[in-house]
Automatic annotation (TrEMBL):
<dbReference type="InterPro" id="IPR024197">
    <property type="entry name" value="TPP-like"/>
</dbReference>
<dbReference type="Pfam" id="PF05116">
    <property type="entry name" value="S6PP"/>
</dbReference>
<feature type="domain" description="Sucrose phosphatase-like">
    <location>
        <begin position="4"/>
        <end position="228"/>
    </location>
</feature>
<dbReference type="InterPro" id="IPR036412">
    <property type="entry name" value="HAD-like_sf"/>
</dbReference>
<dbReference type="InterPro" id="IPR023214">
    <property type="entry name" value="HAD_sf"/>
</dbReference>
<dbReference type="InterPro" id="IPR006380">
    <property type="entry name" value="SPP-like_dom"/>
</dbReference>
<protein>
    <submittedName>
        <fullName>Predicted hydrolase (HAD superfamily)</fullName>
    </submittedName>
</protein>
<keyword id="KW-0378">Hydrolase</keyword>
<dbReference type="GO" id="GO:0016787">
    <property type="term" value="F:hydrolase activity"/>
</dbReference>
């Protein structure tokens, strides 16, 4: 039976030097757009990756854009799920055309909805003197989700901004969406976007190829739980956001 590991990347298979430090046996795992070092695998992360590399098909499941994923240095050689599930890459690096067609059906409604939510966050940030930067993340011309960070890395101020948004907005504006807050990163995803949807689609595709599969989900964030629960088993790093919530 084919074993498949659906694995989140950042803070799961590797992390920045700021988050986990850097030792002499760390391995560079990702770079910034200018080529400078970004993420590192410590020795245990290297051993964990090698264990699965030798015994399973590893499929990344990440919030990274296509460009950011291409700067990951781990030797993946199969499918990849990026953009919080908004894009699926084939083993040759091209976008899965069937999945892309499904996603594009939401283009107009997503653009309008994200712009409305961004305007609300800007108003709240102004009232709370919350110094944020924001962007609507896209792949090509397809809007996907809203990303907000605090310019001074004040995670508490960012959390208060999100709480005010929850209280102020009509429930129908966000209850079917996904609000993902982890440290100094906040992502607001429309109802149709999510890693779990892409994992389910890809599972069906892989089962058609391999037959019944043993699937394992691996992630650190509470936003990863939805896709991890699609799998037969799941794994989370000690001290991850998931671990702290248990």
């Amino acid at each position: 039976m084919q074993t498949i590991l659906f694995a989140d990347l950042d803070d799961t298979l590797f992390a920045t030097e700021r988050k986990q430090g850097k030792t002499t046996n760390c391995q560079l795992a990702s770079t910034l757009s200018d080529g400078s070092p970004s993420g590192y695998c410590n020795q245990k992360q290297q051993d964990f990756f090698q264990l699965w590399w030798q015994n399973a098909l590893i499929i990344p499941v990440t919030a990274r854009s296509v460009n950011a994923y291409q700067r990951v240095l781990l030797p993946f050689n199969s499918y990849a799920i990026v953009n919080h599930g908004g894009t699926i890459l084939l083993p040759n690096g091209a976008c899965d055309p069937d999945w892309q067609q499904q996603v594009r059906a939401y283009h107009s409604e997503t653009q309008d909805w994200l712009m409305r939510q961004l305007a609300v966050f800007q108003q709240i940030a102004h009232k709370q003197a919350c110094d944020i930067r924001h962007s609507i993340q896209k792949e090509g011309d397809m809007p996907l989700y809203l990303l907000i960070k605090h310019n001074q890395n004040d995670a508490q101020a960012l959390a208060e901004l999100v709480q005010t948004y929850r209280r102020q907005q009509a429930p129908q504006e966000w209850q079917e969406a996904t609000l993902h807050l982890n440290d100094n990163n906040f992502a607001l995803l429309p109802h149709w976007l999510g890693k779990a949807n892409a994992v389910t689609y890809l599972m069906d595709k892989l089962k058609a190829q391999y037959g019944d599969c043993l699937t394992i989900g691996c992630g650190d964030s509470q936003s990863d739980l939805a896709f991890m629960r699609c799998c037969d088993y799941w794994i989370t790093p000690t001290h991850s956001q998931i671990d702290r919530s248990l």
